Structure formats: C-alpha cells, structure tokens
Amino acid sequence: MDIAEIGAKIGIYFIPFLFALCFHEYAHGWVARLRGDNTAEQMGRLSMNPLVHMDMVGTLILPLVSIVLATPIFFGWAKPVPVNTRNLKNPRVDMFWIALAGPLSNILLAIVGAVLIGVVAKYFGGVVYAKGMIEILKAFLLTNLFLAFFNMIPLHPLDGGKVLARFLPAQINYKLEQNEHITSMVLMGLVLTGALRILAVPVFWSAQSLLTLALGGFGIS
Fold first, then answer.
1. Range with the largest mean pLDDT of 4-13, 95-104, 192-201
2. Helical pair 91-123 and 200-217, crossing angle rounded to 10 deg
3. pTM of the predicted model, to two decimals?
4. Cα 19 vs. chain centroid, distance in angstroms?
C-alpha cells in the first residue's frame, strides 16, 4: 500500500470514525448535563474537538495501524466522558439514558449518512466526485452502525453494560462493575481473535435497510 492509498483510506475511514467517536462522547456529556451533571462540560469534554476525547492507543494508534495493515476489523475507542452520579436525581435511570445516548447518537448519524447518500445519488449523480462522496458516506454509515452495535454489547465498561444495569439487581450490577477489568480483557480477546466479525451481520443488514429506505424515499430503486 503506497502513501497515496494510505492517505485515501485515512480520508475514507479514519476521519468519519473520528467524527463518530466525538459525536458519541458528546452525546453522553450532553444527556448527562440534561440529567443534572455538568462534569463533562466543566472538564471541557462537552465538545466536538477530537483532542479532548482522544485516547492515544484507541483513537489514534490502533485505528491507523488497522488502516495501514488493512486488517479485517477497523476498531478503536475514545476516553469515556466523566459522569458524577452524585449530581443525578435518579442515578439508576439517569445512567441508563446517559449510556444509551452514545449508541443512539451513532444510529442518528447512520440515518443522516443514508439520507445524504440518497441526496447525492438523486441530485449529484453526474458530478465527477459523486462516486467518491458516496463511498465516504457508506464508510460513515457502516462505522456508526458498528460503533452502535459494539457499544451495546451488554458488558462493562461498554454502554451496553450500563444500559443492562437498569434492569439488574443493584448487588449483581455492583459485582459486574467491580470485575469490569475481566470483561475488558474478554472484549479485547474478542477483538484480537476476530470474533467481533459476527457484528458484521446486524451492521450490514441495518446498513442495507437504511439505504433501501433512503434511496426509496428519493425514488431510486
């Protein structure tokens, strides 16, 4: 892979990925503020600036290495947005919505991406760069859906673990949180072994469904 190809892949995959991560973390902080906790805002994390959310390994090194080596799984993460549960009126319920905000924000972006693909295909199909723009939007769509499905895996420290906590007895959830270092190792093992490829099934099905609806809405079959 030459430098030009690497640069193109960074533009197609890494930049949409970075935007999706920032929007995901911003959503957590925004909903936390709505529920009574402004810790993220006070710490400068209620921002779309990637520098404030960046984890050197998860946001930069691992994704870029995945692009350069053309690994089958494009994977990464950002620093979690801090939440002080003492500021929440109903921590159990509020944390459910704060956690859910991240994956939902990525689903929202995926829908926006599908609609924009429809707009480009309908009104700019004859433009020279239309095909390239559609490829970038498809990568954006898939990246957001992958982040949404991955983060909804019901294990701590992922958002899915915090969403599941809303429906578990407090003692059981406490034990799960205390052992999240173990589930973190399990998740990393799933990544390294390629087991997360199973997420491709719901991701591509959802992407195809969104594209079908979006293109159909613009009268494109």
1. 95-104
2. 50
3. 0.92
4. 9
Q: Kindly give the residue spans of alpha helices, DSSP state H, lying in 35-127.
A: 39-42, 50-53, 62-69, 91-123
Torsion-angle region of residue 194: left (phi > 0), alpha (psi -120 to 50) or beta? left
DSSP 13-56: IIHHHHHHHHHHHHHHHHHHHHTT--HHHHTT-SS--HHHH--I
Q: Kindly give, in sequence order, each residue whose CB lies less than 8 Å from that of residue 171, ignoring residues fewer than 6 positions away.
A: none
Distance CA 139, CA 6 (A): 15
Residue-wise pLDDT for 125-177, tens only, equals: 888 888 889 999 999 999 999 999 999 999 988 999 999 999 999 899 888 88
Supply 48's token pair: 């779309």
**Token couple for 95:** 């944390």
